[in-house]
Amino acid sequence: MAQRPLSLQCLEQNKVLVSPIMSFLSKSTVLLMFVLCCTSFTSTEAYDALDPNGNITIKWDVVNWTPDGYVAVVTIYNYQQYRHMEAPGWSLGWTWANNEVIWSMFGGQTTEQGDCSRFKGNIPRCCKKSPTVVDLSPRTPRNQKIANCCKGGLISSMVQDPANAASSFQLSVGAAGTTNETIRIPKNITLKTPGPGYTCGPAKIVRPTRFISADKRRVTQALMTWNITCTYSQFLAPKAPTCCVSLSSFHNKTIAPCPTCSCGCRRNNTVSRGCVDPKSPHVPGPGQKNTITPLVQCTSHMCPIKIQWHLKLNYKDYWRATIIITNLNYHMNYTQWNLVVQHPNFDNLTQVFGSKYKALTSLSTTNDTAMLWGIKHYNDVLMQAGRHGKVHLELLFRKDKATFTSKKGWAFPQRIYFNGDRCVMPPPDAYPLVA
Hints:
Residues 242-432 form the COBRA C-terminal domain. The protein has 435 residues and is mainly β. The chain has helices at 6-13, 15-46; strands spanning 56-66, 69-78, 91-95, 101-106, 108-110, 132-135, 166-174, 187-192, 198-200, 204-206, 210-212, 219-221, 224-232, 243-249, 252-256, 275-276, 296-297, 305-314, 318-327, 334-335, 338-342, 349-353, 356-359, 369-373, 381-382, 390-398, 415-418, 421-422.
């Protein structure tokens, strides 16, 4: 019998050793690729190409020392271009480093008092290790207010209303440090606006804030200041969409409706607990409190907000589009609503009817993104579902004959966002075609 080559003998002898090593390397490679994919996915979802520098900065200014702690003014600044804080408003939470308590507050309130049994006589306003603070309403008495407070938790975006893009409250902290060396900075900052979606970094000590008096003749400064930066991430936000888009055109009777089950599916029973039939005698009336949980009108898409883009007219030198925003949510008045629309022809936008407009700065070299929002005291509040739950806008574009076409869906938007949430678009093959 012929003798086998030495190399083959060596391979067989080491087979038991090689197999586990290859198996280990294979598993390690798969695990590494999985971790890298997850990391990449998270960072991609957290990055917003439409607002790459947008964030919410929370500034904590220590303005006075007390016998057992300090007085601080906390201000939430919204530096985002189009995302704002809507009803029922923001809530801010943290964890004390030691056993601090809150003796008093102005311009805000804690949601719970906590266990204050260790105190005799004067009882603190809040003894919880991890308190949560919410804003006060505009109807709050003056003796409980401070400057820039009491907006019901609503904070506008920087583009829409910069004068109302911040909110403040004051608190007196006890059982705390009384100097810059002994004070302890709170940890685990959380921000909800009102739902999740924001992740906050650790507090960083910065240069003390300088305050200018009303007559601009005197400048004072905080005793100590620290900042917390919070960024928005779709990865942390609720996964279910909140809006959908339908498309139509004057030259085609076909309408591309919102895709079925865009925001959820209607239950297959005669009495659906998840939605309301508008013909039902038990339709909720106006004036109901704004709540996070939507109560929507029964539709095939089940979205609280429906947006229709209609190609209205095609002139020789211009073309016109109509946008109809319909509120199908019986639980919400959308105050200071806004739309962000991506379309390749915004460079040629001539006039906007029924709303305000601003081109959003992005990394693109062309102007293809616009922010639209309501006119104050006219249509800046999108009312609850019902007869008044609609807003109409119109856009007039100058026609660039080298690029304009009604074919292949060019005249329709690429993406639409409502209040910062990306809306579900119809599939490309459903777009209205040329008649």
